[in-house]
Amino acid sequence: MDTCTSPCTILELVLTEQTCVPYAYGNYSFQTIFDPYQHRYLVIVIGWNGHHRIHHCLLHLEYRDGIIWIHHDTTAAGITEPLIAAGINAAMIIRTSPPQSMAVPLEQDYMHKDGRC
After folding, report:
1. 50-81: per-residue pLDDT in tens?
2. Rounded to whole angstroms, how far apart are CA atoms 10 and 45?
3. Where are the domains of the chain?
């Protein structure tokens, strides 16, 4: 990472770039929400699906103690690789939830190996 570019600046740039990619399932828009004082970063999807309002958190990241915490990531490709490509050291990134591709349905969390709940 360039020593002149702070991790927070890189986060803002990468997340803003993510909003340039059209949403895969409809005509929705993105909003970035950056809190420069508490170093929290969100990307949300908003719009309408017929008569149903869509308001969904796509990404939620936080920069704390020199670490980028990925609290929520529902992007198709994941946010980790774009962060690394932008100059963030992989050792500075911690994912607090599994990637979307590895997510286990909630009901499986409560089942015994023999199938009982």
Report:
1. 888 889 999 999 999 999 999 999 888 889 99
2. 21
3. 7-100
